[in-house]
Design goal:
The complex is a heterodimer.
Chain A lengths: L3 E2 L4 E5 L4 E3 L2 E2 L6 E7 L5 E7 L5 E3 L5 E5 L4 E6 L8 E8 L5 E3 L3 E6 L1
Parallel strand pairs in A: 2-12
Antiparallel strand pairs in A: 1-4, 3-9, 5-6, 5-10, 7-8, 8-9, 10-11, 10-12
Chain B lengths: L3 E4 L2 E4 L5 E7 L5 E7 L5 E9 L2 E4 L6 E3 L9 E3 L8 E8 L7 E2 L3 E5 L1
Parallel strand pairs in B: 2-11
Antiparallel strand pairs in B: 1-3, 3-8, 4-5, 4-9, 5-6, 7-8, 9-10, 9-11
Classes of the chains: A mainly beta, B mainly beta.
Chain lengths: ~110, ~110
């Protein structure tokens, strides 16, 4: 079965710091990759997705992620975080089957 | 355009009671799914459906039933609630199994 690992469970940053959240998955075939964000008290929203093509994908709110196939990774980055980025971030992987598998999530707190 | 609508938003049950969590979408999406969200475990797939009349089990299906009689509705049934089913439940839909999912606002369920 597919597994998705997010190694950082909690991250605390100051405003303007750079962010990188790790995501690794186990499936060796073709995958679709997603990052979702959940702001406090809200539902999940799509940040960005990778299906094929340029492995560096840009999403909303200045986020980007890089797909490195050889490392089975899809890390999320943002050059300069803001207080409003405080949220929980989920990596998700869709393999050739019907199921989308989520990582355990990373809680990001940005201090003003 | 309401998107994905979940009802109720909150519910408290006693052990052994049954209930149905409702999910409806107005986007004519074929793919619908139910997840439960527990701290540190991300979202885990309970059941999913690739179209009306078709349902299948996800990662954690035990204790839950689903049906998909129409494209719009995908109710989740707890036949005999257990404290281990205390969680936040999210319904999601997408045009097909590969596209990003749209999430509802969630149902917070407590079982005493």
């Amino acid at each position: 079965a597919q597994s998705v690992s997010q190694h950082n469970h909690h991250v605390i940053l100051s405003e303007a710091a750079s962010l990188e959240l790790g995501c690794n998955y186990s499936y060796g075939g073709t995958v679709n990759l997603f990052w979702y964000v959940q702001y406090p008290g809200q539902h999940l929203q799509l940040l960005l997705k990778y299906f094929s093509g340029d492995p560096l994908v840009k999403g909303i709110k200045g986020f980007e992620a890089e797909f490195i196939k050889s490392k089975f990774s899809f890390n999320l980055r943002k050059p300069s975080v803001q207080w409003s980025d405080t949220a929980e971030y989920f990596c998700a992987v869709k393999d050739a089957g019907n199921m989308l598998t989520f990582g355990g999530g990373t809680r990001l707190m940005v201090k003003p | 355009n309401a998107g994905v609508t979940q009802t109720p938003k909150f519910q408290v049950l006693k052990t052994g009671q049954s209930m149905t969590l409702q999910c409806a979408q107005d986007m004519n999406h074929e793919y619908m799914s139910w997840y439960r969200q527990d701290p540190g475990m991300g979202l885990r797939l309970i059941h999913y459906s690739v179209g009306a009349g078709i349902t299948d089990q996800g990662e954690v299906p035990n204790g839950y039933n689903v049906s998909r009689s129409t494209t719009e509705d995908f109710p989740l049934r707890l036949l005999s609630a257990a404290p281990s089913q205390t969680s936040v439940y999210f319904c999601a839909s997408s045009p097909n199994r590969n596209q990003p999912q749209h999430f509802g606002d969630g149902t917070r369920l407590s079982i005493l």
